[in-house]
Design goal:
Layout (H helix, E strand, L loop, with lengths): L1 H27 L5 H24 L5 H10 L4 H25 L15 H22 L4 H4 L2 H20 L5 H11 L5 H23 L4
Helix pairs in contact: 1-2, 1-4, 1-8, 2-7, 3-4, 3-9, 4-8, 5-7, 5-9, 8-9
Length: 216
């Protein structure tokens, strides 16, 4: 269990450090990375973490994903609670590192709606739903397909970050939003990025169960 928690802490730390770090560096370098570069950064670090740490903890690196796996019966609720705690701690640690390196950054890559609250809520729900559906369906595939999980999930994150980033910040992950928001003090609409992805991931699991599993 200790190894699992360390893996979730490290994986979430790396996700926030490189993903949000790309946003911060793009800002301070006046666009050197670009929006598409940020999307690629998020997709790549998710893929790297999955291939590096999934054999230890499953590489959830996302409280909404852990909650959905608990609902699915693949993770005990007690372990789920511990996963969520260390994921948030990992995100906070990464955000503190970014603040130490870039103290003038106003938001440290925090997710903030660029349009209406409703617009970002719906977009986050759809993107998180698709991400969780991809994750849970990969688990049901043959081993040769599951071996591509890092590429497929990372590619999904890249696509959603590329499309949704300019509107909602494309969080799909409460920990990824909590870390930068709390450390920067910019907590505007933070509840959106906690509630919408969590509801979406839970709905994705229920949808997958309805579509692909016959009643016994």
């Amino acid at each position: 269990m200790t190894r699992k928690l360390l893996a979730e802490f490290l994986g979430t730390l790396l996700l926030v450090f490189f993903g949000c770090g790309a946003i911060v560096i793009d800002q301070v370098s006046h666009g050197a990375i670009t929006h598409m570069g940020v999307a690629v950064s998020f997709g790549l670090i998710v893929s790297i973490v999955i291939y590096s740490l999934s054999s230890v903890s499953g590489a959830h690196i996302n409280p909404a994903v852990s909650a959905a796996f608990a609902l699915h019966g693949h993770l005990p609720w007690r372990e789920c609670a511990l996963y969520i705690v260390v994921q948030i701690l990992g995100a906070l640690s990464a955000s503190f590192l970014l603040h130490l390196m870039f103290p003038l950054s106003a938001d440290l890559g925090a997710t903030l709606p660029s349009g209406s609250y409703q617009q970002s809520f719906i977009l986050e729900f759809i993107m998180s739903f698709v991400l969780m559906l991809v994750i849970v369906r990969l688990g049901a595939q043959e081993s040769n397909i599951r071996s591509l999980a890092g590429l497929i999930i990372g590619g999904t994150v890249f696509l959603e970050a590329a499309v949704g980033g300019p509107i909602s910040g494309a969080s799909m992950n409460p920990a990824r939003s909590i870390g930068p928001a709390l450390v920067s003090g910019n907590v505007h609409s933070l509840e959106l990025y906690i509630i919408s992805p969590t509801l979406a991931c839970l709905c994705a699991v229920l949808c997958e169960r309805t579509l692909f599993h016959r009643a016994s």
